[in-house]
Task: structure prediction
Amino acid sequence: MKKIFRILLPAFGLCAALLCGCSNEEDVLPTQRDRIVSFLEGSHQPPLVPEEEVEPGSDALYYTTLGNTVYRYIRDVYDPERVNRTEVTRSSTVTITFRLYVFTYATIPDTRLPEYTNDPELASAYVAAGLNVEYWSFEPLRLNLRSADILNGLRLALVGCRQGDRVEAYMTYNMAFGDTNFSFIPRESPICITFTVESVE
Result:
């Protein structure tokens, strides 16, 4: 059955069709999972370890696997004040500032513009690159996690975060835009979304 998910681009009013299952899934998904994990444990700066390998009392930096296709790194997970901030639940409404990239299994350089963002710090960079941002919102994006209109991978990445968290979420194509071409995102593309949780209700 076909499910329709609205991407993070409400300003454009674009929609992506995410089909449940595809013929290449057996080949593509394991490869994407392996390459994301290899990146996180090797090239990512700093290198990360799986959460289940973190010893009690350790301050090792780690990633969490959500389902078997979303990988989340919370940059300030050891902030002593973090426990006092509101946690995101499955029924929360959150606002985020985000940057969305097609993930190429390499560190995303500061000079590379995201495929889409609502980060006001980048507005002038898009204008300088010749892009028309007249209908592009640079306001924090408000998401109701009970709604079906959110990428599955982003929903998984948000639950368990706390207000103020700075997060990197890496996901295989089936948790993102599926096996169809979506605007500037090629079919079966893994993506990375970096975001800050601005508020939690």
